[in-house]
Please model this.
Amino acid sequence: MNKIQDISKRIATNKWFEFAIIGIIIINSVLIGVETYTYNPNIVLVQHIILYIFTFEIAVRFIAAQNIRIFFTNGWNIFDLTLVIIGYIPETLVDNASMMMALRVLRVFRVLRLLRTAKEIKVIITVLIRSFSAMFYNVILFVIFIYLYAIIGVGLFKLPNPDQLTGEDKLHYEQFVKIAPNAPANSPDPFGTLDEAMFTLFRELTGEDWTDLRYNHITASNLGVIKVNPTVINIYHISWFVIAVFLLLNLVTGAIINNYQTVKEENDLKEKQKE
Model:
């Protein structure tokens, strides 16, 4: 057994073996893309051969590990093993169409095996995983703010129901719809409901047409469609943009950068210890 383990270790740590697996992963990724255009039995055959190669690679890494616990403490080993097992599930065993689609989608995740081929990508993935705990609290803070601003937005900017308007009010509403960009003539009121308001605020966060939303509210205010002072409108939109973009997003960015530096230092220390 020790002899087999030694051979497996030599194979698993061999650079040419690693390059060969990287090449096969790239070929597999390309074929997955080609399969979205056309069905070809030759491609299916090649995919089966690639699956057997991946199985061999997993077996080599499993034997090379000192024990089962060491093998399964590596997240990439679990990920690769899961994909290999999924690859052996025949679609004929699945009767449900949605389950068959889910099986195909899971197989597409083989493309993610490319992430383990470069050290820098591994570092980035490690950083993202470590940042989840910090980002979790940032997300909670973000949800609290977006929920608060959405409630205020609905209270301030919800447009009246045009069917219930009469006289000058209806005339002013029709005029607003004509001149305001992205007015709710063919789209929902951005602040008509709480969930729509939260989506609108998220859209403002991306910087997409957030000035148009402000302009719409200023126009609606000038026409008397909504009873909100233009100064209040400006304070609302600018304060949200400043809090969301310059504060909340920077907290997430800061957490990721801090974890990146920590992981980089740990990796450099490991490399020095190996030397």
